[in-house]
Amino acid sequence: MIRATGLLRTALWLAGIGLPVLPLREGKEPFGNCPACTRSACGDRPHMKAAGPCRCPAPCHAWGAATTDADVLTGPAWARAWRQAGAVAYHPGGAGLTVVDLDDAKAVAWAREHLPATTVVATTRGEHWIYRGAMQSVNGVRPGIDLKSTMSYARWRGPGTGTMSPLPDVVRALVVKEPTARPIRPVIVPASAGGGPCPHRSPVYLERGITMAEQRITAAAEAIHTTVYRTFLAVLSAHGRCGCLTEAHTGRLFTAAQARGESARHCEDAWTNARTALGM
């Protein structure tokens, strides 16, 4: 067992509260693979959700090396790394967390306007906003904004301030590309134009369709942008050509979408994109 340094003491404290940790070199980079693991000779799979079958005792494989095991952290295989370390990092996804990494003042200003309050940690140039809940890690979701969660690591910069909130849909939606007006594949719709003969046997069919659409939007666990767009597309495909839809119907759909965090503008854009995709 190695003697605890300041960084190691921090790492052990973090591990004790459930954060998988790893040492970083000067410059915030993880330690490279040992000779036995170079070029995946050990059979690791760092591109998967787990590091793979490799059980190398050294702090290899970047985020895949993160651990809460005190015996590993203080063992001889990590001793050299701790002596050379410049910082401690943690694997947010391994603890069920997501870090919204805001790299500059503009990104911070955007977050303060659009994201719910949560634990905030000051960084060199911006802030880390930390939420409860894991998701896909993606860099560059907006200018100056990266998402660090599964298969990623974040530098520990202190506990921060504020109460941690659940991961909001608006953060999950950052990884979803906005739908375009051009349809991906042809969509079959009734041939008649608005105001033409109604192919439905009764108003009950329309009412059931609107109700199901509301329920689909309300029940969406993630990818709200995409769910709203596809729901609008389905409603318009079934009911948009015969003149059955009224402002009351579209108002119900917009209300359901806005209750899940969509703005009125996003609703209007999604509706317009769906109409354009259907050639309306």
Notable features of this structure?
about 280 residues; about 15% strand; 3-stranded antiparallel beta sheet; 3 domains; 6-stranded mixed beta sheet; alpha+beta; 9 helices; elongated; about 35% helix; single chain
**CA distance, first residue to last residue:** 71 Å
The number of helical segments is 9
Quaternary assembly: single chain
Task: Tell me the structural class.
Answer: alpha+beta
Over the alpha carbons, how many angstroms does the gyration radius reach? 25 Å
Estimate nothing, just give the exact number of structural domains: 3
Task: Work out the number of β strands.
Answer: 9
Order of helices and strands: HEHHEEHEEEEEEHHHHH
Main sheet, how many strands, which sense, barrel? 6 strands, mixed
Q: Would you mind describing this structure in some detail?
A:
- Residues 46-51 and 178-195 have low confidence and may be disordered.
- The chain folds into three domains: 6-90, no CATH class; 93-166, no CATH class; 203-277, no CATH class.
- The protein is α+β, with helices and mostly antiparallel strands and 280 residues long.
- The chain is built from nine helices and nine strands.
Short description:
The chain is α+β, with helices and mostly antiparallel strands and 280 residues long.
Helix and strand topology:
Blueprint: H1 6-16, E1 21-24, H2 70-73, H3 79-84, E2 87-90, E3 97-102, H4 105-114, E4 119-122, E5 127-132, E6 138-142, E7 145-148, E8 154-155, E9 165-166, H5 169-172, H6 203-219, H7 224-239, H8 247-259, H9 264-277
Parallel strand pairs: 5-9
Antiparallel strand pairs: 1-2, 2-8, 3-5, 3-7, 4-5, 6-7
Helix pairs in contact: 6-7, 6-8, 7-9
